Description:
Blueprint: E1 27-29, E2 33-36, E3 41-45, E4 48-50, E5 57-68, E6 73-78, E7 82-87, E8 90-92, E9 95-97, E10 100-102, E11 105-106, E12 117-120, E13 127-136, E14 139-144, E15 155-156
Antiparallel strand pairs: 1-4, 2-3, 3-12, 5-6, 5-7, 5-13, 7-8, 7-11, 9-10, 13-14, 13-15
Keywords: Signal
Signal peptide: 1-25
Protein name: Secreted protein
Amino acid sequence: MKPRRLIAPLVALAAVVFTAVPAQAANATSYGFACSASNHWIRQNWPNIRTDYSTAQNVWFDTDLYRWNGSQWAFWQSSGWMGGASTSSGRRALGYLAGSPYYFLYGTTRNVAPLLGWTFTQLPSGYYRTVEFYSTPSGSWSTWSHVQGASDAHCQI
Length: 157
């Protein structure tokens, strides 16, 4: 994986942070990524991030796309950091757009991020996989993702 440096929160999110009592260890449920070989895209589905607190906390998510170069997985593109709000129960809707909840904002613009997840488009043919990066008030971690609904770690475009 490429070296990562977590950024300080860049935007004030819709969640108001109150004094909170830790509830459980921060973690996340990944919903994997979807691939479209015919349309040359990969979409990393938004995760459900849980914090150590019962009240809403700012959380951050970034996904990086890797492409097989014949001998190793090489960094290809990054989504950039997206900001959201979560509690010990999971992600919180920041608002609604056309009746659908949205959970993340672009890290620097406060614009609503895509509703289903980040999509990497116009990809050349090849094998791809993603890494998910998480940051909460209690810590940061990363994990390789998987193809949505399958145990496969990569897909072919």
